[in-house]
Design a protein that fits this description.
The structure holds two protein chains of two kinds. Chain A is α+β, with helices and mostly antiparallel strands. In chain A, 31% of the residues lie in helices and 26% in strands. In chain A, strands 5, 6, 7, 8, 9, 10, 11, 12 and 15 form a nine-stranded mixed sheet that branches. In chain A, strands 1-4 form a two-stranded parallel ribbon. In chain A, strand 2 (35-36) and strand 3 (40-41) form a beta hairpin. In chain A, helix 1 packs across helix 7 and helix 2 (47-58) packs antiparallel against helix 8 (244-253). Chain B has five helices and 38 strands. In chain B, a hairpin with a 4-residue loop joins strand 15 and strand 16. The longest helix of chain B is centred in the last third of the chain and has 8 residues, at 582-589. The two termini of chain B are 42 Å apart. The chains are: A alpha+beta, B mainly beta. At the A-B interface, strand 5, strand 8, strand 9, helix 4 and strand 10 of A face strand 28 and strand 29 of B.
Chain lengths: 269, 626
């Protein structure tokens, strides 16, 4: 929807930034969750914190944070009100923001114990019928797995886990502790916490990637800026090009399971 | 009732609720009405659809009135009718403020105050404080406050704002529920806690918002949380000890539902063994919702209680093929044992969150020349049901609001006739679904006046679109959910206050309002009906004509239940809690952004200009004649 005039806007934005940047230190204001590893925390230990440092460094900007749980309403209350300018990781198709090109794509995964005899190969694996299955709870919603499992008649095998803040590792820990047989977890969370249990857990992508007719388990992740802030978005796209390797390295360090990025789809709108 | 947002406290671990996550959606206010002011509709009375209405004074008998208000619906029949007539159509224009009381809370205030022995009792939304006000002293000063200190975590479990619908008085004690699933018993004189029983578990997504009913020493309480995969129940607690006497689950095997030899439903589809299991996918009944968060009525002669069950879960109806018994229906039970006597399902395999928890007014009405013991139930699905309360037979089901999702009710089979092309399915866009998820009418209770024979129904006038899935994320985790957006039904306004003739099944008059009418109703022998609006006006209208006779602008939107009582000075008073919130008012109480039309489960779409009309904050208003 911004296709008719992005170049002009971008050019102007870059010019404005270039001129102001010469006399004032530029500030990059990032909204981030204060307690949500592996993504971010207020001690700046998450991979999104690390990526934000890369971006700020590349733009010669001073990095500042607005700490806010990324629950419902945070886009309108923070990003849209100009409290901050940048979200480091949003789904590429997340419509309330203007998204950059995606810089990684991950998937929901099955987390299982390596020594468990049953390891679901897909949502249709009959072994799921003999399992207690952990799924993430997000505010009032279960993650997509719950709906997919419910349609397969597995409602009563589902156990919900809050995965925010202190409880972030609870779902992965529940697999380790035998409280559930498997858990369906968003990849970055699973990859990060599964490592803490050494070799005893394993993760495998949820299959199918898209549960017909329209329930995806993989998501491409972009940075998000306020709608209309095409200048910053275009700058960020350039940064992602320039510093892609650094960012990939960070994701690798945090154990983020990645799929190949789908072919470019333009600006991510 | 569905999930509502803009709360992000700790989430309990085992919430089960899928699908409906809410994102931005299309613009809704295509018609010019959206920019109009409230005055556009206020006070306008629409003519009767049938001009041949003749007042038909009620021939049945009602419980004697002692001028107090000891339970939310006033009497067991749930009439919300008072015989007090000092305030009447002739003098109501002089009604003046007597005193006020601030609760200091900004969430939705849905409770009816109680008045017992010259004391007024008020239950607040979370943290569910109970205030006692001394009516014998000028300005009704506070006698005491009881603070149950419910866990803050419970705020994260409540579906649709952290409301409480009130308390019940019985035998020197006040009973009510806390959001974190405790039923409390407080000494009405001293404010001292007598007992407190934990009846639910917030970690399972259970919360409690309903007002108990006390029947024969048993405190009847039910669970909220149909959006969180709870397994709904009604419990009877011994009023003396707080011990659970019986539990009747909404779904599951017959022994859990308390279905036994006395169970004789009227319609074939409600008969059979373990329907609470068989009408679900394997084991889905364990998380199938069917909460009991609305109203309970009681017929002492038949010794039966009546209550509706909430929507089945999850919202994604594709995930629960079957009739999903015994959700979205009504039970008649023996209050002593909990045994089910009959059941009827208003919305089998509920597709639209059509909870059946609305009030059941117990009346004896002339139907086809015969006096029948009936219950009158304005359902969320858009029909006012008149049912034989001895048998569960549907005698009539007449639409009181715009309906596109069904064609009617087949009185032979009792089955709701769904419109197939409106059925929502994953991946399908369904538009112009009326009524919406909050229903043609939500929990807001009606009143009945024996002088006019009419039922006064506060309700919604909304439609909704269910959109295809959209990507969302919370705290780093992406997912998809359906979008729901609600908007005003044809006519361009969001609510109505309707006078309804339950015998003919016809509207007598109706007053449109810009917003859904989310308050309860009160009828009095002064030929008056009282109700409030979401923008804070408290109205008194002529029970016969609907003509507005008095109004008062309170400090916040009204979603409470008006009551009236005789004060220690022998004078009649009218009381209402003001304080916007609840599902409809979440946009104000929760500070939702009106640009996000699908916030608060899509309700914001219909409410986006509410913040222009009111701010939050709970205050009791009490009125008297000069």
């Amino acid at each position: 929807m911004f296709s008719s005039f992005p170049n002009v806007v971008a050019l102007l934005a870059v010019l404005v930034m270039a001129t102001t940047g010469s006399s004032f230190a530029r500030e990059l204001r990032v909204c981030a969750d204060p307690d949500n590893l592996p993504f971010s925390n207020s001690r700046q230990q998450g991979f999104e914190n690390r990526i934000a440092e890369v971006v700020a460094g590349d733009l010669h900007a001073h990095l500042s944070y607005v700490w806010q749980r990324m629950g419902r309403g945070f886009v309108r209350e923070y990003l849209n009100k100009g409290v901050c300018d940048l979200l480091i990781g949003v789904p590429q198709a997340f419509s309330p923001v203007l998204a950059t090109a995606p810089y990684y794509r991950s998937t929901y995964v099955f987390v299982t114990r390596r020594d468990h005899q049953l390891k679901p190969a897909s949502l249709d694996d009959p072994s799921l019928r003999q399992m207690k299955i952990g799924v993430q709870v997000l505010e009032e919603d279960y993650t997509p797995a719950a709906s997919a499992l419910a349609r397969r008649g597995l409602q009563s095998e589902i156990v919900g886990f809050d995965t925010l803040g202190e409880a972030a590792d609870s779902i992965v820990r529940a697999v380790e502790d035998h409280r559930v047989d498997t858990a369906v977890v968003w990849g970055p969370l699973a990859g990060y916490f599964a490592r803490k249990f050494g070799n005893s857990l394993q993760i495998a992508p949820v299959i199918p990637e898209l549960d017909p007719p329209g329930l995806p388990f993989t998501f491409a992740i972009s940075m998000g800026v306020r709608k209309g802030n095409t200048g910053l978005r275009n700058e960020l796209n350039d940064v992602l090009q320039r510093r892609g390797r650094d960012i990939q390295k960070i994701l690798g360090q945090f154990g983020v399971p990645q799929l190949e990025l789908a072919p470019p789809t333009g600006a991510g709108e | 009732m569905l999930k509502v947002h803009e709360r992000r406290p700790t989430l309990a671990n085992t919430l089960l609720c899928y699908v409906v996550s809410l994102l931005l959606l299309l613009p809704l206010c295509a018609d010019s009405f959206c920019s109009d002011s409230k005055s556009h509709t206020s006070g306008m009375i629409l003519p009767a659809t049938e001009s041949n209405y003749q007042p038909r004074p009620y021939q049945g008998k009602l419980a004697p009135d002692d001028g107090q208000w000891i339970r939310p619906a006033k009497d067991y029949a749930s009439t919300r009718y008072s015989t007090l007539d000092q305030i009447n159509t002739g003098n109501v224009k002089n009604l003046k403020l007597a005193f006020t009381f601030s609760t200091g809370l900004v969430r939705g205030h849905e409770a009816a105050p109680l008045v017992v022995q010259n004391t007024m009792y008020i239950v607040t939304p979370w943290p569910n404080n109970l205030y006692a006000l001394d009516l014998t002293k000028p300005g009704a000063p506070m006698k005491w406050v009881y603070q149950p200190m419910p866990t803050p975590a419970s705020k994260g479990v409540a579906c649709c704002d952290v409301v409480n619908r009130g308390a019940s008085y019985d035998n020197g004690r006040i009973y009510y529920n806390t959001l974190d699933d405790q039923t409390v018993c407080v000494d009405a004189n001293s404010g001292k806690e007598i007992w407190k029983t934990r009846v639910g578990d917030i970690n399972k997504g259970e919360s409690m918002t309903m007002a108990p009913l006390v029947v024969k020493g048993k405190v009847l309480v039910g669970v909220s949380g149909g959006e969180f995969g709870v397994r709904g129940w009604l419990k009877a607690l011994d009023g003396k000890s707080g011990k659970v006497a019986w539990t009747a689950y909404t779904a599951g095997p017959d022994k859990d539902v308390l279905i036994g030899s006395r169970y004789k439903p009227f319609y074939a589809q409600d008969r059979g063994q373990d329907l609470g299991v068989k009408s679900w996918p394997p084991d889905a009944w364990k998380i199938g919702g069917g909460g009991v968060w609305g109203w309970i009525s009681y017929d002492p002669e038949l010794n039966l209680i009546y209550y509706g069950t909430a929507n089945p879960g999850p919202w994604d109806s594709d995930a629960r093929p079957g009739d999903n018994k015994f959700a979205s229906g009504i039970f008649a039970r023996d209050p002593d044992t909990g045994e089910a006597v009959w059941f009827y399902q208003f919305s089998p395999h509920d597709l639209f969150d059509y909870d059946a928890v609305n009030e059941n007014i117990l009346l004896d009405l002339p139907i086809n020349g015969q006096t029948r013991k009936v219950l009158v139930h304005p359902d969320r699905n858009g029909y006012v049901y008149v049912m034989d309360r001895t048998s569960g037979e549907v005698l009539s089901a007449s639409p009181f609001a715009p309906i596109t999702t069904s064609r009617g009710v087949d009185l032979k089979t009792g089955l709701l006739q769904y419109v197939e092309e409106k059925e929502p399915h994953r991946g399908k866009v369904s538009r112009e679904l009326c009524p919406t998820a909050p229903g043609a009418k939500d929990w807001q209770p009606s009143a009945f006046s024996p002088k006019t024979g009419l039922v006064y129904i506060p309700h919604n006038h909304l439609c909704m679109d269910e959109e295809d899935v959209a990507v969302n994320y919370i705290a780093g985790t992406p997912y998809v959910g359906a979008n729901v957006v609600m908007y005003n039904a044809p006519g361009g306004y969001g609510g109505e206050f309707t006078a309804w003739d339950p015998v003919s099944g016809k509207v007598v008059w109706k007053i449109p309002d810009h917003f859904p009418v989310w308050s309860g109703a009160l009828a009095t022998a002064g030929d008056l009906v009282f109700y409030g609006t979401l923008d804070g006006w408290f109205h008194a209208v002529d029970a016969r004509s609907g003509q507005q006779l008095w109004q008062f602008k309170t400090g916040s939107g009204i979603i409470g239940q008006p009551i009236t009582y005789r004060g220690p000075d022998g004078k009649q008073y009218v009381a209402i809690l003001s304080g916007v919130g609840g599902w409809a008012g979440a946009i104000v109480a929760g500070g939702l952004d009106p640009r996000d039309k699908s916030a608060a489960l899509g309700f914001v779409g219909a409410m986006q200009d509410l913040p222009k009309y009111t701010t939050s904050g709970g205050t009791l208003y009490v009125f008297q004649l000069p």
